[in-house]
Amino acid sequence: MFNLIKGESKMKTDNAIFYIKYYAKKHGEIIERKATLDDNGCGEFKHKKYGYPYFKYVDLDMTEELGYDKDGKPQYRQASKKWEINEQPTLNVQQ
User: Fold this and answer.
1) Average pLDDT of the residues in 57-62
2) What span, in angstroms and rounded, lies between the C-alpha atoms of 31 and 22?
3) Are 84 and 22 within 8 A, CB to CB?
4) Mean of pLDDT over the chain
5) Which H or E run contains 65?
6) Is residue 29 within 8 Å of residue 7, measured between CB atoms?
7) Using CB atoms within 10 A of its CB, is residue 42 exposed (0-12), middle (13-18) or buried (19+)?
8) Which sequence spans correspond to the domains of the chain?
9) What number is the average pLDDT over the span 52-61?
């Protein structure tokens, strides 16, 4: 079982790598990303206007692919409303 320690307003971890799975409206399907958290506003939050939960994370797949390009910064993403976090990938991706 993957363990994230939940703080008052966000979840923190010690540079742990995990996999987050959620429905991405942009892609029109469930996606899974290799991820981590950092101290720059990552974690679980509540939308200020609409009240739904969301989870902000560093997308390691895109950060590695771009080589910290785009101004040399990590690539942040967020999952809204529902997501699943696992230690290992769970989607069966065929290439």
Assistant:
1) 92
2) 6
3) yes
4) 82
5) helix 60-66
6) no
7) buried
8) 7-82
9) 94
- Sole residue written with tokens 């976090």: 85
SS3 at position 36:
strand
Handedness of CA 95, 88, 16, 39 (dihedral sign): positive
For 5-23, give one letter per residue: b (16+ CB within 10 A) or e: eeeeebbebeeeebbbbbe
Q: Which two tokens stand for residue 91?
A: 């989607």
* pLDDT tens column, 4-31: 544 433 444 557 899 999 999 999 999 9
Q: Are 66 and 58 in contact (CB under 8 A)?
A: no
Find tokens 């506003």 and name the residue: 41
**Helix count (H) and strand count (E) of the chain?**
1, 8
